[in-house]
Design goal:
Strand content: under 5%
Structural class: mainly alpha
Helix content: over 70%
Radius of gyration: 53 Å
Distance between the termini: 83 Å
Number of helices: 18
Oligomer: single chain
Number of strands: 2
Largest sheet: 2 strands, antiparallel
Mean pLDDT: 81
């Protein structure tokens, strides 16, 4: 949490000073604060992303390569959503630096960001802002893994667009090694298809040729020799660099082919022709003209076929992109279907638990009813037995007391001292009988 607070203070200072470039020490401090805040699960990640808005794009790119393998999946999704947000030129640079950093860690995610950066139309792909962003992030930095662009698992149409954009970004500010690397990768991508019939590869070949024309001849020949093993079909597109240019013998006025094929040698001489020879020559010229007409018609038909093929190729590329989108949607649908099946299984499990709980509740209610019946029966039996016992007790008590009161004088009789003594004795006998029957009438001390 302390790092997150320090990050917000650091971000606030950058906003106040409107700094777009950091010193080496500031750069390292920003990376450390961002790393600790992003990986801190207790930190408010939304607040961290807000603080990152004021950070230079190069800092965000370097941070991405450091945290990508450690950042949780849910934060990774939020980070990519934030990084691909379009908010002007700064968003282009941010996406470019993040994509360049991810090329070494997650090429598929990197190429998906490049798909958003490099549009299909040529005019947008040549915008000055995009060129500067791609040049600064991919071509001038030396630690970018450009070789991963040639991975066969990446979407080929996007890689072709990306290579073309990179070729257009190459200039004198880009190190020579990057010129050579981009050209090598481009040649390998072109060589995976038919560079003579594929319209996208033809365009990419043209861009590669324009780049090679800016090189010294020795470097051009070295490049073509290098790609003869990795992309021989592309090397064949540059025959003059493979076999050398034709040499001319200026002394004798002869044209000599150096490619190894024999050709006729022409010398200046006076030629005399007869009339039949002229007619034969005219016939041959007419036949040649007719043949040229047929060839021209054939070339026209061939040009139409090439145009139709280009349109079909473009449709095929669109179909491939749609197929990739359908594949992605299919994968998402499978994930949703898996979640739905898991939810159905969970609901079924809960329904079974509820059913079992109802059965247990019914069993408990049934047991309670039977217990209540048994209790009522037991209470009735106890009550009946108690009534019988009470009645028997009353009868016994009455029988015992009746014998004691047999000699009891009348209520209004006058008593002598002797009779009073007898009556007192009977009274105590009466009390003793009650005590014997379990009826306590005397105080506890007296009874003891």
């Amino acid at each position: 949490m302390a790092d997150a607070e320090e990050l917000h203070r650091f971000s606030k200072r950058l906003k106040e000073k409107k700094k777009t470039r950091l010193s080496t020490e500031e750069h390292e401090s920003a990376i450390e604060l961002l790393k600790n805040s992003v990986l801190d699960r207790e930190a408010d990640f939304t607040g961290v992303l807000e603080a990152m808005d004021s950070m230079p794009s190069v800092v965000i790119g370097d941070l991405t390569g450091i945290i990508w393998d450690e950042i949780p999946e849910e934060r990774r999704i939020l980070f990519l959503r934030w990084a691909t947000r379009r908010d002007g030129e700064k968003s282009l640079r941010r996406m470019a630096f993040v994509s360049a950093s991810l090329l070494a860690h997650d090429p598929k995610v990197s190429i998906s960001l490049l798909e958003r950066l490099v549009p299909q139309d040529d005019s947008a792909s040549r915008s000055q802002e995009l060129r500067q962003a791609l040049r600064a992030s991919f071509l001038i930095k030396r630690d970018v893994k450009l070789q991963n662009l040639s991975s066969p698992t990446l979407s080929e149409p996007i890689v072709i667009r990306t290579c073309r954009a990179f070729l257009e970004c190459l200039d004198k500010t880009v190190p020579w090694a990057q010129h050579n690397t981009i050209s090598q990768i481009t040649a390998e991508i072109i060589g995976r298809g038919n560079p003579r019939s594929d319209s996208a590869r033809l365009t990419l070949t043209s861009a590669l040729e324009s780049e090679l024309k800016t090189w010294p001849v020795e470097l051009q020949r070295k490049f073509v020799n290098d790609i003869e093993t990795t992309a021989p079909a592309v090397a064949e597109l540059f025959p003059t660099l493979r076999h050398g240019e034709p040499a001319v013998d200026k002394a004798g006025g002869k044209s000599v082919q150096t490619s190894g094929q024999s050709s006729p040698v022409f010398e200046n001489a006076d030629v005399k022709m007869s009339q039949p020879g002229i007619r034969n020559l005219t016939d041959n010229i007419e036949k040649r003209i007719e043949q040229l007409r047929l060839d021209l018609q054939l070339y026209s038909e061939l040009w139409k076929i090439v145009g139709d093929f280009d349109r079909l190729q473009a449709s095929a590329m669109q179909a491939d992109e749609l197929k990739a989108q359908v594949q992605q949607l299919s994968e998402r649908l499978q994930a949703v279907e898996g979640a739905r099946v898991a939810a159905v299984e969970r609901i079924g499990s809960l329904e079974r638990e509820v059913t079992n709980s109802h059965l247990q509740l019914q069993q408990v209610a049934s047991d309670s009813d039977s217990t209540k019946q048994e209790r009522d029966q037991l209470i009735a039996q106890v009550k009946a037995h108690a009534e019988v016992e009470i009645e028997q007790f009353k009868n016994r008590l009455g029988g015992n007391l009746s014998r004691l009161v047999g000699d009891l004088p009348a209520k209004n009789a006058e008593l002598s001292p002797a009779s009073s003594q007898v009556l007192l004795r009977q009274y105590h006998q009466f009390l003793d009988k009650l005590e014997e029957q379990g009826v306590r009438v005397r105080p506890r001390r007296e009874s003891q």
